[in-house]
Amino acid sequence: MRRALSLSAPLLLLVLSVYVSLNYLPETQRLKALLSSQVTLIELPRIDVIYRKLSSPNDIVSVHCESVLPVTYTKVVSLSSLQPAERKKRFIDLLLPSVLIANYEVVRTRENLTRVLEKLKMRYKLSRAERDFVESMLDRCKADSIEEVLLKANPVPPSLVVAQAAVESGWGTSRFFVEGNNLFGMWAFKDKSKVIEAKESKVHLKRYDSILEAVRDYIYNVNVGWAYSEFRKHRRKSFDPLELSEFLSFYSIEREKYVKKIRRIIEKNGLTELDYCILDPSYIR
To answer: What confidence score (pLDDT) does residue 132 get?
Structure first.
């Protein structure tokens, strides 16, 4: 015969009181109790990223827009030996998966922030994980409110990312791209532990461990940097890469000439098609 589970009188009263309180409260109050500090709505982005090293341009995995494998590269090679058309194709194949991964991470961050904001509006208590998450995002995005973070934490059109990377890396031929996975000409101002020194200059550029790391940093720069506040404001109205490019003039000392260059690359190479590509769902958990 199974032995009966015995509870002390005080513990039994506590269990009964919790049961009664949760089952006889009005529906809204019961929900509030369930969404208390003991429950978190935070869901971390889970993508099975595939990391690879390149020995030659032929090692780059071809992209199929309707189902892009989440491949990123930790070591790259110059694409200068390829003919222009082939170079552009390989460059897009190399970069696009990392762009989609980084954008997906931003989207998931927005979803988490939105859930937390709704919870606060309904006067529910946040869990410790939610509080830590909000505090870290406020600090990272240099913001004073969740609403301000939501203005900053937004994806960037893949066509725009690829166009800027093409300009800054010479379609995968620059020394900074080959030596440090630096696709966007990102400078190192504070952390000098991983840098590439420019020739005939005191400028230091960042060295990244992967293409994905470089893309994440670029998106963070556009989403948080003071120079792109108008870009972020306009992005709330439109996701059109040609319109958004107008607000990236501060990215280069060429200013308006740079903007025209970005637009020309997008239009000439039909890059807007990339804005409809999606990650292979089988790699997302």
So the answer is: 93
The pLDDT tens digits for 22-44 are 444 455 555 555 556 667 778 87
Name the pLDDT band for 144 (thresholds 50, 70, 90): very high
**What CA–CA distance (Å, rounded) separates 260 from 258?**
5
Residue 207 CA to residue 212 CA, distance in Å, equals 12
* Region label for 235, one of left (φ > 0), alpha (ψ between -120 and 50) or beta (otherwise): alpha
| Cα 110 from Cα 237, distance rounded (Å) | 17
Q: Provide mean pLDDT across the span 254-280.
A: 97
- Report pLDDT digits (tens) over 80-128: 999 999 999 999 999 999 999 999 999 999 999 999 999 899 888 888 8
As a whole number of angstroms, the distance between CA 203 and CA 62 comes to: 35
**Beta pairing partners, 71:** 50
Express each pLDDT in 243-252 by its tens digit.
999 999 999 9
